């Protein structure tokens, strides 16, 4: 029982990180109908920016952790947004209106470029970091097992919940969110209402990148080690989460992220840790075969 | 004084296919101008060209003295043009209210309540259905919503693409009455594209006949209604 609860906590934490990345996939898919395969690498870049800015703040002598984390969060979101914006501007916008596969190929190219760029700029070795947020709460105790909920895990889950609530509100209630949904449903009509469609698409990439960078920051703080290649696996897992939840659906991405996090954690805990990726990707295959619209996806046909 | 909208020698292509062959159309302030023609004559293409999507390959479009031929769509719209397009293009997964809010994208938010009230007075049905999703409305209601959405931006020129298409005669009458009311009460200039030539010509100050991408006839609504070739091509066989 204690073991189970501990895995549940770990799974929800991991799922939060996947969920944050998955939102970027799903929003971009919703608005321009393409999978941004470079999104995982924007997550990786977010993690590196977080790491570097944390080290800089440390060397400047800032020891008040909450303030340092807040600054890192903001810096990481801002700089990653620039990356997200640039990727769209350079690799996707010129190909808009081209055949469907073109931006996909361009996305894979962008992904490889970003990985190599970080590899050259930062070196290929893994980058470790001292734990920043220490300690936790003991939730349950038994003679041979102690269930702990670390402060880092609390921070990850709370940050994720706050960001998801904020973004859901933004999409549902604000003018910007309505414009995004309008572009998602009918880009031509959106432009006929005076919406700058290109700008709205850019903003979608910026928002996705900002969320991914938060996930990257959480990742580096939680695991304490990153390298230039983490974006690939995390990206594909988050993509799986987005497909599982129903690509194009924001709540779906959150739910999918949570489920993938839980499945992976429980699989590692009760079966074999070597095959945890197999578990996650088997889900992708099964969903694509039996439930292509995902759990919360919209069916293709609507009465018009 | 120059016209509000001046289309001169416009040619539009889809790939290699020429859809418009040197079209000249003008709309004065406060006028209702109608463009009639058969399916595929290029009526909708003209309205879309005027909104910059697709852009004209040659010719010039001037709105309120400004050349808008090469401007992007959203900038043209922001100058004060609104369109209720072919097929209505309601946002099916948004509520009626959200659709109307989208219509007000370019308008000053301070006008929103007043404009909404105007639209609801014109089409009381929309008020009843404001919380309903656009995709669940009937054809007539969707048309009302498409026009209402266009009005929410307080346009100086309203473009209506076949507002009567596929609607029951009673609803068509209602829609045409609303168009007349918008024109008379607001003094709004309207460019109306129609297959329903009889209704359109009776309502309009002036009309143009478009055949295969070129204007073949122009005149006041009354004149065109009386022309035998118009009668033969567009009016015989009932209306």
Automatic annotation (TrEMBL), chain A:
One of its GO terms (cellular component) is plasma membrane. It is found in: Cell membrane. It is a multi-pass membrane protein. The keyword Transmembrane helix applies. Its main location: membrane. Keywords: Amino-acid transport, Cell inner membrane, Cell membrane, Membrane, Transmembrane, Transmembrane helix, Transport. The chain crosses the membrane at residues 12-35, 42-61, 67-87, 99-118, 150-172, 201-222, 279-297. InterPro entries: ABC_transp_permease, BCAA_transport_permease. GO terms for biological process: D-alanine transmembrane transport; L-alanine transport; L-isoleucine import across plasma membrane. Pfam families: BPD_transp_2. GO terms for molecular function: L-isoleucine transmembrane transporter activity; L-leucine transmembrane transporter activity; L-phenylalanine transmembrane transporter activity; L-valine transmembrane transporter activity. Belongs to the binding-protein-dependent transport system permease family. LivHM subfamily. This is Branched-chain amino acid transporter permease subunit LivH. It comes from Oceanibaculum pacificum.
């Amino acid at each position: 029982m204690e073991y189970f609860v501990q895995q549940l906590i770990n799974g929800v934490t991991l799922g939060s990180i996947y969920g944050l990345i998955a939102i970027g996939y799903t929003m971009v898919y919703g608005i321009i109908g393409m999978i941004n395969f470079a999104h995982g690498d924007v997550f990786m870049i977010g993690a590196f920016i977080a790491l570097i800015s944390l080290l800089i703040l440390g060397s400047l002598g800032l020891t008040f952790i909450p303030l340092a984390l807040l600054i890192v969060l903001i810096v990481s979101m801002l700089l990653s947004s620039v990356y997200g914006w640039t990727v769209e501007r350079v690799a996707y916008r010129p190909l808009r209106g081209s055949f469907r596969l073109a931006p996909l190929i361009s996305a894979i190219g962008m992904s490889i470029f970003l990985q190599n760029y970080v590899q050259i700029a930062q070196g290929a070795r893994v980058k470790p970091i001292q734990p920043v947020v220490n300690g936790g709460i003991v939730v349950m105790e038994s003679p041979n097992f102690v269930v702990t909920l670390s402060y880092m895990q609390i921070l990850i889950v709370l940050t994720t919940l706050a960001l998801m609530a904020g973004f859901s509100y933004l999409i549902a209630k604000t003018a910007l969110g309505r414009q995004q949904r309008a572009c998602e449903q009918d880009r031509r009509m959106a432009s006929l209402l005076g919406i700058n469609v290109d700008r709205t698409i850019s903003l979608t990439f910026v928002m996705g990148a900002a969320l991914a960078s938060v996930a990257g920051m959480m990742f580096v703080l939680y695991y304490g080690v990153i390298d230039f290649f983490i974006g690939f696996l995390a990206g594909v897992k988050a993509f799986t989460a987005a497909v599982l939840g129903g690509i194009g659906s924001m709540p779906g991405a959150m739910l999918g992220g949570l489920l993938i996090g839980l499945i992976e954690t429980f699989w590692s805990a009760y079966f074999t840790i070597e095959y945890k990726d197999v578990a996650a990707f088997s889900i992708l295959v099964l969903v694509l075969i039996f439930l292509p619209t995902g759990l919360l996806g919209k069916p293709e046909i609507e009465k018009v | 004084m120059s016209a509000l909208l001046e289309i001169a020698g416009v040619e539009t292509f889809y790939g290699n296919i020429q859809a418009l062959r040197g079209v000249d159309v003008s709309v004065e302030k406060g006028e209702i101008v109608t463009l009639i023609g058969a399916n595929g004559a290029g009526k909708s293409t003209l309205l879309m060209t005027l909104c910059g999507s697709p852009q004209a390959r040659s010719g010039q479009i001037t709105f309120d003295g400004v050349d808008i031929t090469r401007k992007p769509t959203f900038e043209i719209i922001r100058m004060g043009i609104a369109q209720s397009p072919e097929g209505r293009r309601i946002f099916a997964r948004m509520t009626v209210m959200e659709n109307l809010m989208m219509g007000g994208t370019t308008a000053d938010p301070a006008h929103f309540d007043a404009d909404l009230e105007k639209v609801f007075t014109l089409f009381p049905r929309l008020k009843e259905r404001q919380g309903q999703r656009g995709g669940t409305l009937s054809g007539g209601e969707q048309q009302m919503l498409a026009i209402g959405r266009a009005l929410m931006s307080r346009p100086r020129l309203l473009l209506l693409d076949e507002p009567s298409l596929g609607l029951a005669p009673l609803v068509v009458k209602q829609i045409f009455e609303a168009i007349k009311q918008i024109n008379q009460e607001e003094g709004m200039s309207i460019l109306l594209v129609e297959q329903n030539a009889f209704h359109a010509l009776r309502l309009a100050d002036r009309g143009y006949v478009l055949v295969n991408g070129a204007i073949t006839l122009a005149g006041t609504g009354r004149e065109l209604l009386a022309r035998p070739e118009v009668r033969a091509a567009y009016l015989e066989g009932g209306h």
